[in-house]
């Protein structure tokens, strides 16, 4: 079978299907991004996102939907054929095009699926689970800290993990609870509501939460940072690069840039005349509260350390008391 342009209709040997298999997708690819990629070729009626060992694959199903079958007097076989032709047109286009299919700059590989329909899809946001997908509308990534998100959602139960990221839909977060019941309670109470005004920067007038269920059941958090937290693993390493230099500054009342607050402090130690060890730092910083983790490293010829507290308030108190002071008398190790 060939197209009118003379190009082979099928580059792949699989039997055509209205369900396409997409590979090499970016991390946490959303249903919205898949629909956006496919909509020039037809209507997507079902998706299955983040499958495979690396969660970088997906399935999409073309179709007219049952509404079309009910409202239009068209034989069912013709509907099935129309669904199939939409998938064929997408495969054919990218098989002959010099511009590859892309999502967020990554080349996506497309082929026919062995399945003829997607069943048991948990990506619709309607099937309950223990992980919520939260879109925070009206804000940018630096406007709402992960500590504020934790504060809001922990009101309904213990939050195991949080991962935040930016997508085409806006600033989003995945929030993992112990069970689906707790997640459902949080969703029912917060979906469509706003984060309390006093928890937001002054330049943010309001923001709204749009909440659905995620297909995830257990988030893979590799580092504690301003973008991700695992509240079940106190021994997880802190990622310095994720904390230093990447937080978007907010504006203070005077209009000047205001340093974002975090429960992790970055300490630069100057005038090093004596050794500063983890034990020394623990003794100094634990005066103000429980120190969960300390990481020491060298950068630009100087010594720096990351000190993690349980919350932002304790970290802020320690920062205010210790900044500019010396560990040893005589002005050493400032």
UniProtKB/TrEMBL annotation:
GO terms for molecular function: RNA binding. Residues 18-115 form the RRM domain. SUPFAM superfamilies: RNA-binding domain, RBD (SSF54928). It comes from the Eukaryota. Transmembrane segments: none annotated. Keywords: Repeat, RNA-binding. The keyword Phosphoprotein does not apply. The keyword Metal-binding does not apply. This is Polypyrimidine tract-binding protein homolog 1-like isoform X5. It comes from Phoenix dactylifera. The lineage of its organism: Eukaryota, Viridiplantae, Streptophyta, Embryophyta, Tracheophyta. The gene is LOC103716382.
């Amino acid at each position: 079978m060939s197209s009118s342009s003379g190009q082979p209709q099928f580059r792949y040997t699989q039997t055509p299907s209205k369900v396409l298999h997409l590979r090499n997708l970016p991390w946490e690819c959303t249903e919205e991004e898949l629909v956006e990629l496919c909509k020039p070729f037809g209507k997507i009626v079902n998706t299955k996102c983040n499958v495979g060992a690396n969660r970088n694959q997906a399935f999409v199903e073309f179709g007219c939907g049952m509404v079309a079958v009910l409202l239009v007097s068209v034989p069912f076989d013709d509907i099935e054929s129309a669904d199939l032709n939409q998938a064929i047109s997408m495969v054919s286009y990218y098989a002959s095009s010099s511009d590859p299919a892309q999502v967020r700059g990554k080349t996506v590989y497309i082929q026919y699926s062995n399945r003829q329909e997607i069943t048991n899809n948990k990506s619709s946001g309607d099937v309950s689970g223990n992980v919520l997908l939260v879109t925070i509308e009206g804000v940018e990534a630096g406007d709402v800290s992960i500590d504020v998100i934790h504060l809001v959602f922990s009101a309904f139960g213990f939050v195991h993990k949080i991962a935040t990221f930016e997508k085409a839909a806006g600033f989003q977060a995945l929030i993992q609870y112990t069970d689906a019941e707790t997640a459902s309670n949080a969703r029912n109470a917060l979906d469509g509501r706003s984060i309390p005004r006093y928890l937001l920067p002054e330049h943010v007038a309001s923001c709204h939460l749009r909440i659905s269920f995620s297909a995830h059941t257990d988030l893979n958090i590799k580092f504690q940072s301003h973008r991700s937290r695992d509240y079940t693993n106190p021994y997880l390493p802190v990622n310095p690069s994720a904390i230093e230099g990447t937080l978007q500054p907010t504006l203070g009342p005077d209009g000047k840039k205001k340093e974002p607050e975090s429960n992790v402090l970055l300490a630069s130690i100057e005038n090093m005349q004596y050794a500063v060890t983890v034990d020394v730092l623990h003794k100094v910083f634990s005066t103000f509260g429980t120190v969960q983790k300390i990481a020491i490293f060298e950068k630009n010829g100087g010594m720096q350390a990351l000190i993690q507290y349980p919350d932002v308030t304790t970290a802020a108190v320690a920062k205010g008391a210790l900044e500019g002071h010396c560990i040893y008398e005589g002005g050493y190790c400032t």
